Description:
The protein has 250 residues and is of the alpha/beta class. The protein is built from 10 helices and 10 strands. The chain has helices at residues 41-47, 79-85, 100-110, 116-129, 133-136, 149-161, 179-192, 205-211, 229-234, 239-245; strands spanning 3-12, 15-25, 30-34, 58-66, 70-71, 86-89, 167-171, 197-201, 214-219, 222-228.
Amino acid sequence: MKFHVKDLHVFYGEEHSLKGVSLEIRPYSITALIGPSGCGKSTFLRCLNRMNDFIEGCQIRGTLRYDDSFDVLDPSLDVSELRAKVGMVFQKPNPFPMSIYNNVAYGPRCQGIRSKNELNQIVQSALEQAALWDEVKHQLHRSGLALSGGQQQRLCIARALAMKPEVLLLDEPTSALDPIATAKIEELLLQLKQHYTIVIVTHSMQQASRISDDTAFFLLGEMIEFNSTKELFSTPMDERTENYITGRFG
C-alpha cells in the first residue's frame, strides 16, 4: 500500500477535526474523498504531506505510514523530502508570477539542478505529462498568469510533476473550471494514474464515480465508508452514505 492510515485524529486547538480515520491507499490508483463541506476531506489530504504543519495549533495523532518505509508523522522526518515525493495541487490554480518555463523549472532549481539541458528536458517532460506541451511549447517565456484557468491548473500539475513525485494530491482541482477544462483534467488524471498514486478531494460525486478506483465518504470528521468506487456508489453499506450519494443531504 502507498499509505497505511490507522486511527488518525486531527485537532485544531480544541476542535476535533478528524476522528479515528483508518484506510489504505493503493498505489497507481485514484482515491476520491467525498462528503459535504467541512467534513474533514481536505484536512485528511493535508495530512498525507504534512501541509497541516503550517496551521498553528494543529495536533495529529495516530499512524500514517508511507510505502511501509517511514512514518509520515515522525517529528524528525525531512518534510521537504516528503513533499518532493507527495506533490500537491490546490483548488484555485496558483501559477507563480513568472514564465511558463520558470514555473515548471522552479522546483528542480531549488533542488540544485542548474544544467540548462537537464532543466529543458524536465520542463518538456512535465508539460507533456500534464497535456500542456503542445499548447505552450512555442511560448514558454510567456507569463503563466496569462494562460486560461484550465491551462493554469495543468501548469500547476506540471510544476508538481517536475519534482518527480510518486503521489499527487489534488484538492478540488476542477471546482473553478468550466466543463470542457474539467474534462481535460479528468482525462489527464486517468492517464497519470499509470505512473502515480492520486488522491483527489471532490465535491462532485459524478467526478468521483467517473475517474476514481476507490472512494472514501467523510461526514463530520469521521470516515463513514471506504470501498471500491463501484461498490460504494452501487451498494453503499451505510445509510448515511446512501443518503449523501442520492442527494438527500449535503
